[in-house]
Design goal:
This protein has 459 residues and is mostly helical. Helix content is 70%, strand content 0%. The protein contains 16 helices and no strands. About 7% of the residues have low confidence.
Length: 459
Amino acid sequence: MIDLVLVAQLFVLCLCSFNVGRLFQHILKMPAITGYIITGILCGPSAFALMGKDASRLDDLKRVEQACLSIIGFAAGCELVMKELRSQAKAILFVVGAILPCVAFMLQLVTRTWLSGLQAFHDFSAPQQTAASLLICTILLARSPASAIAIVKETKAEGAFTKLCVCASIALDTIVVSTFAINTNIAHMIVDGTPLSPEAVAKPFVKIAASALCGYLLSHFIQATVLRPLRLDSHNRFAFRGLCCFGIGAAVFFVSDTLRSRDTFMRIDPLLTCVACGVCFANALVPSDDFGSIVDETLPWTNIPFFTLVGCGVSFQILPTVFHFVMALVGCRLVGLFVGAWLGGHLASLNAEQHPFRWMGFVTQAGVAIGLCKQTALEFPTWGKAVNALCVCCILVNLLFGPIAFRWVLQKVGEANADANFLQTGPGVPQWNTPVFTPKHPTAEIKVVELREAVSHAS
């Protein structure tokens, strides 16, 4: 039965998050999703408890989180355009190939040394700590292509450096999502003490193949049903299709949970399935120009409840106990990025003057990384929530510093447009100064024009 009180509390909390997000974006010049997460932390069960003191009530909103996460997966897949990646193939290969091992080594060095000493992980067994270390490193390898693209649009940046940062970020996230599917199975083997066998080795690769196939079939299903011609005007048609994609994404996670609960050999990774579906649309494997636009318009609105609930799931009391460890993880990740980006640029014979700054294009983390955090919490109920809280704190720090660093380095290398308007909407933010859908009436259009003029005067 639906808890209407909980739904009403979530609605009120999302309104608060939306306004705090606008404050962060327009006043503090930070990503709005940072405001969403902080609002969730402050209003969550461990702080002011706007949704009540019982943290277990948040589990009733699991399907909402999963549906929102599916939209993030669709959006990530839509960014993977093979034609663009091929134009930078050599540079991407060397930069990504250098960043991954360098960052993974630095993160493993910290987690394997300090993780057992943290109060939040002190009561966990040695296998659980090893599995947690593996997944923490995987999650913190993720990047945020949506954030990079938003900052590029904001600064109107153009050039080889900009294109490399965006394309390499997309490639990194695709590799990390696939690696996470494999490492999740390895973590289960470590925790359960499953002996190494041909079946255990094949299982994660079968899971990836099944997820890719399901994503391809899902794209055809969406093309045949959601994207077929409808007798609706443009704004209603767009809203209806967005809701349909939201529901289909929730169904993907439901099927995945059902297969996992029945302990079948054939399983799918729901996030990877959604990414694969987006890839099919982005690369014209399924002929459609509408899906990417639908996802782009739906994503900002699903980001509000998703990142707010992510913040609610972080225990306010855990922050002081893990602060030093979070800063160590963030610092070592930056060192790994610096070494990897410099080494990759050197091997790819890129502009040597950009070597000291190239790492700044890969700092920010957002949707995909936090999605993997939530997947960990759902996959491993015993210790996954501690991993989720720890990684969210790291991602929050990267969200505060990353966009500033990327904006600065684009100006440093001379690819940012000096006349760019730095008060445009950032990644994952509803465009409150423009209508989401085309207004029906002339009066509404006049109000929109007035609101646009007010925003331009304020900026």
